[in-house]
Amino acid sequence: MFFMVYAYSAKEGEIEDRGTAMQEIRDLLKKVETVGDWWGVREYSEKGQFRMARNGQNSANSTSVTRGVMVEVMNDGVLGYAATSNLTKAGIEMAFKRASAQARSIAKFSLTQFDESIRPANKGTYSSPVERTLSDLSPAEIQDFLIKTSSVLKKGSSVIEASAWAMLSETEINYISSNGSDWKQNFSILTKDSSVTGKKDDLIQSRSSGMQGLQWGAEALSSETQASTNEKLLTQLDELLCAPECPSETMDLLLTPDQLYLQVHESIGHPLELDRILGDERNYAGWSFVSPEDFGSLKYGPSILNVTYDPTLASEMASFAFDDNGVKATKEHLIKDGVLVRGIGGIESQKRSGIAGVSCARATSWNRPAIDRMGNINIEPGESSVTEMISSTERGVLMETNRSWSIDDYRNKFQFGCEYGRLIENGELKGVVRNPNYRGATVNFWNNLSHVGNKDSFEVWGSPYCGKGEPNQIIRVGHAIPTCKFKNIEVFGGA
Amino acid sequence: MTTTNNWEEIFNRACEHSFSLLRSDDVLNINFSAEETNFIRLNKSKVRQISSVEQASFEMDLLCGQKKASLSLDLCADEGSNTELITKHLEELKREVDSLPDDPFITPLTNEGSSRVVNDGLLPSVDEFIDLLGGLMAQVDLAGYLTSGPSYRGSANSLGQKHWFSSTSFFFDYSLYTAKEKAIKGSYAGSTFNRQDFDTKMNESIAALSKMDSEQKVIAPGKYRVYLAPSAVNEVSGMLGWNALSGGAYKRGECPLAELFEGKKKLSEKCNIQEDFSLGLSPRFNDLGEVSSEKISLVSKGKMNELLVSRATEKEYGLKSNQATEREGPRSLSIGEGELTRENILKELGTGLYISDLHYLNWSDKQKARLTGMTRFGCLWVENGEVVGPIKDLRFDETLYQIFGEGLEQVTNFSDVHMTTGTYGNRSIGGSRNPGMIIENFSFTL
Ligand SMILES: [Zn+2]
After folding, report:
1. pLDDT in tens, A58-77
2. What is the mean pLDDT of residues B142-168?
3. φ, ψ for residue B193, nearest 5 deg
4. Torsion angles phi and psi, residue B99, rounded to 5
5. What residues form DSSP beta bridges with B396?
6. I want to staple B359 with a disulfide (CB 3.0 to 4.6 A). Which of A366, B94, B260, B374 is the partner?
7. DSSP-assigned letter for residue B180
8. Interface A-B: count of C-beta contacts within 8 A
């Protein structure tokens, strides 16, 4: 069991003496002429690395180093934002002026009117739980791991392309505000994937480990774990190249966490976002079938369905102590015993809508304001073993690893495709099927949930690529999920 | 926002400084992008969030023999900060390059010459734009965002090549809503903001919204005759950038149009697809500074002539490069027009679906070029050439061989230019030009 390494300081105090943000940014702000009824400065710096090998050879090595500040200024209850990478006194003062002028210029037409309480004063620090820091890994070491992985995968008899990549990021956020917020968070995140594509006659199939991102350190690149993954990928690729198409019929469906996490993301996470419900996202990501009256009454699923917002699960991608509005992050139920009870909305959306939310206002980097985002959206483990789910199935299919996803702008009608399927007949796992897909409508689908897996099938998954917002922002999200079973789902194969 | 910084000079100085730090065997390739942008985000015709961003990204590819590593840094208007940052990180990059194994598919950099394109514009100030909103608010429920300001792209290498591209532009990307949550999409974009054009656009959109007011029609899944308006075709053609035109993806077994390239399948004679830089949406130089032909015919009369091929793919697989970017996606795609006139669209559609917009497309069977996605803004049911009313959203699942092939009946004699409105990380540039299309037997599944 891991524990999160963070500490809160409950008392408010003076920024200069008791703060926890980096000294450098605090010293700089002391020199800057600030403006506005209230202000906050979020400094964001990140070193990101992307490395890839293909077919046993070095293929890509890129590093990005970014650092800048977002200055927020409130005048008469209206916020303006200005971002800059010019971290000189002059640069930050200019950003203050721009943010303040922006707030003034929209005063007449601002949709919202707030006060300081939307940026509660907090102090503290957070660090990802790591065994070995990412900076322990040299570029050559990472590349060596990827070359070896793709080299082993390329040796498969039918393989035409094998690749492995890793994306590392070390991020630091410092936040200081005029009403006493002063905190720092450090994240260590590694996302990786490995995949093979094979060809037999005219048939092409791919199998991958599934993109998985976690808060962890250098220990993420474990050769032993990768060796068993490689073996599985090559075996299953050969199976797929001999497998028939997935049948098209209505039957039971078992989804493993590497597919179910995206189902949760698209059909529970997004529709519960309060800014979508409030209409902010109507022009881009979309609206939601969920309306404000649904909180407290909508039966999203059967009573075995419990969905949480959990920023406290060690290693999950979006665990943190504070969101980017400086609100303390706590674990909350979104769906309790099947009933919708809470939305995914930060403090601003909670005030606008009057709906209970969570600490989830987040920004992709220093150049964007925080908006409502998913953090870690999890299904709490249930009672069923995978064996029990299979043995209780007369006819069904088990699907693994997402490869295609699509859902409408209200988050209703979805369609997903997976890499690998296994038929289930009369309570037993049978042959492999290729191109397995399924489709459905959200509330109906979740109400067809018949089994929630226990701790044995519970896995932590996460993606760095959730897109939303105008201007656009991508964000890292986590989903920890057990295998689940659904009754009577429309399943189908390839073209 | 008025430009306060001379980004071209900042770029030039940063290049000079980086080149001065190179060792004798090092070659450096640089890609630069900068912007000074105002974003005004709207909901219910009011401002939800306003932000201004000043950012510049300086990306260096350091090559030393068959070794290569890249690094991007954030520059700013302060030269001292830039010099310090580049000096520190370029040293690290040199050490990294030396430590890496060879990459056999690296091709040597060359000097592909120089160019300089500067497109000026006249943008609305924040205050001017905010004033326009006052008029809109009373009339309509609007959500969307205005993005405006100058953006810059530079490319240079230590062999003397240098390209500069700057453009001052704005886009207003919006949607309007009826009380029953039916919506239409609109956009107004360009380099010179004109009050009269803005009003005309808005009035057209408000008129189009009135068609969405009648009772919603629920359509059962099945095969229908459809008209895809240029903005809906734009969503489909956007999927061509997901490996469908990539030479490297073809060789890796990941190209959805592989069977078209191999001549096993074909598209309709009415289908013509080209990369056309004469649209002026995107610079012709790629990330290596290579300048592409102004026009590349990819599909003509339903047959594929060539895929987009980068220099790396040429070296790895022997396909001939056409100066594509590393991603081998189109940058300025243009779909050929046909003969269907605007006045005849409804008559020629007869009975079926008029689709203005599609949403969330993805390959549902990549190997067979099958796509799925949803209908979204401005979709109507039409009977005998008359609009009946808006539809409840439908999911489609159909192959490109049907959409641009067997099912393609007519193509309009006009097309719309769609500027990219993407702002992930920074403001994208580029876009595409698409006509409208009438398609038979288009499959809806949910
Ligand atoms: Zn998402």
Report:
1. 999 999 999 999 999 999 99
2. 94
3. -85, 125
4. -85, -15
5. B373, B444
6. B374
7. T
8. 250
Place of tokens 């940014």: A25
Nearest CB to A474 within list B365, B367, B424? B424
Angle at A176 between CA A173 and CA A181, to 5 degrees: 110
Considering the four listed CATH numbers 3.40.50.800, 3.30.2290.10, 3.90.226.10, 3.40.50.2300, the one that applies to the domain covering B7-209 is 3.30.2290.10
For chain B, give every domain's residue range. Answer: 7-209, 222-444
Collapse the DSSP code of A94 into the 3-class scheme (helix H, G, I; strand E, B; otherwise coil) and give the result. helix
pLDDT (mean) for A202-223 = 96
Q: In DSSP terms, which residues pair with B177 in a beta bridge? A: B141, B183
Of A81, A408, A495, the CB nearest to B49: A81
Residues with CB under 5 A from ligand 1 (ion): A 466
Could you tell me which residues come within 8 angstroms of residue A89 by beta carbon, excluding any fewer than 6 positions away?
A28, A31, A32
* Strand ranges in B213-328 using DSSP code E only, listed in sequence order: 222-228, 273-276, 295-300, 303-304
Q: What is the mean pLDDT of residues B39-47?
A: 95
Which of the 8 DSSP states describes residue B310? -
Gap between the Cα atoms of A54 and A407, Å rounded: 32
The interface predicted TM-score of the complex, written ipTM, equals 0.95
Taking each helix axis from N to C end, the angle separating A89-105 and A23-31, rounded to the nearest 10 degrees, works out to 70
In 3D space, the residue among B171, B175, B198, B170 whose CA is nearest the CA of residue B186 turns out to be: B175
- Peptide bond preceding A482: is omega within 30 degrees of 0, i.e. cis? no
Q: Which of A294, A290, A268, A295 shows the shortest CA–CA distance to A278? A: A290
Question: What distance in Å separates the CA atoms of residue A247 and residue B241, rounded to the nearest whole number?
Answer: 30
pLDDT tens per residue, range B265-310? 999 999 999 999 998 888 888 988 898 999 999 999 999 999 999 9
B262 neighbourhood in chain A, CB within 8 Å: none
Is residue B219 within 8 A of residue B392, CB to CB? The reply is yes
pTM of the model: 0.95
DSSP per position, A374-421: --BEEEPP-SB-HHHHHHT-SEEEEEEEEEEEEE-TTS-EEEEEEEEE
Both tokens of residue A150?
């793709």
Report which of B403, B34, B408 is spatially closest to residue B238, judged by C-alpha positions.
B403
Tell me: the pLDDT tens digits for A107-136? 989 999 999 999 999 999 999 999 999 999
Cis peptide bond upstream of A471, omega within 30: yes
Q: For B287, what's the count of Cα atoms within 13 Å in the CB-facing half-sphere?
A: 15
| pLDDT on residue B284 | 87
Q: Which positions in chain A touch B253 (Cβ < 8 Å)?
A: 160-161, 197-199, 204, 206
Q: Which two tokens stand for residue A494?
A: 């390839």
Is residue B58 within 8 A of residue B75, CB to CB? The reply is: yes
Q: What is the pLDDT of residues B298-325, one digit of tens each?
A: 999 999 999 999 999 999 999 999 999 9
- Residue A452, judged by CB atoms within 10 A of its CB (0-12, 13-18, 19+), counts as buried
> From CA B296, how far away is CA B415, in angstroms rounded?
19
Domains of chain A with CATH codes: 15-241 (3.30.2290.10), 249-492 (no CATH)
List the beta bridge partners of residue B34.
B56, B152
The closest of B388, B389, B347, B353 to B374, measured between CA atoms, is: B353
Who among A85, A108, A439 is closest to B55 (CB)?
A85
Contact call for residues A347 and A358 (beta carbons, < 8 A): no
Give Cα separations from B429 to A284, B161, B423 (angstroms).
Answer: 18, 22, 9
Q: Indicate yes or no: CB of A85 within 8 angstroms of CB of B52.
A: no
CB contact under 8 A, A283 and B40: no
Mean predicted confidence (pLDDT) in B93-117: 93
Ligand 1 center–CA B149 separation, angstroms: 28
Pairing of strands A371-372, A203-208: unpaired
Whose tokens are 């964007």? That residue is A368
